[in-house]
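General statements about sequence and structure are easier to judge against a single worked case. Part of our work consisted of pairing the sequence of a single chain with a tokenised description of its backbone. The amino acid sequence and the backbone structure tokens for this protein are reproduced below.

***
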Amino acid sequence: MRKLISKLKNRIIELAIGFATLIAGLVLYLYLSQFSGDWSTKQDVWGQFGDFVGGTLNPMLGFISVLVLAATLNLQRKELAEARKAALENNNILAEQLKVMHIQSLENTFFKMVDEYKKDAIVTNAQTSEAQNGILKAVYSLAEGRAEFWSTQDHRKKNAYFSQMTNKATNYGEVRHVILEKVVSLIEIAEHLNNNQVHYGLLQTVVGPRILSAIIHLAYHEAPAKYATLTKAKRLLQNINVALVFDEQIAKDFWDGDQLNKYYEQQDEILTSFRKSELAPEMVSPS
């Protein structure tokens, strides 16, 4: 029944025209069958005929006209709704295409920046085993050392200390303003990528656990906003040696479960090892 009604609605204009034709034919038939004869030559007779036809057909044709108008408006409404639906679907498709293009652009940017990071001379100098260990130990001293040494705004002492601890491979400024900034920028891009845990895992491999631990500790103590960005990528410190983390809060921010329990089991031993490796700040003179 609903299908029949729907079909009738879709063909209402054709039905109205057919009905109007049928009514007109019926009126003419009734008139001619009642008043049969030859064609009249009198004007008043034609006038009477016109009055009869007009008076009979006009109300019916007027009603049919209203139906046709209503059907036309309904058809236009449907067409407009379909046009809006099609436009919305096109907009959604375009939005998805733009989103995919944006993701692809970010993906390309990420890998380009990773490549630039690996080729950076400062990064290369800091990648030796001796330099990595020295950076982590220097950051420990910066975080836990004597306040009168580290409170100064003069970075010469900090640079000299990092240089001494890394055998002149790098200094505080390069670690803080080059390596840390580059890693944070990569994390900010990876945050918007699909399957970004894979990208974080790649960063762990490229940057190295010791450098990652060092810059995370450095950010925690000297750049809170940068640290907040780093904590979004907990994958950075996943499954690394717990002996590389000396700050309990960082351990809690990046680890849970077995790895965090393992850290607590070895915490005293870890801190003792870091303290033994610390070089007294007063032994270093800024150049």
Q: What stands out?
A: The CA atoms of residues 5 and 11 lie 10 Å apart. The chain is about 80% helix and 0% strand. The chain has a mean pLDDT of 82. The chain has two domains: 2-104, 120-283.
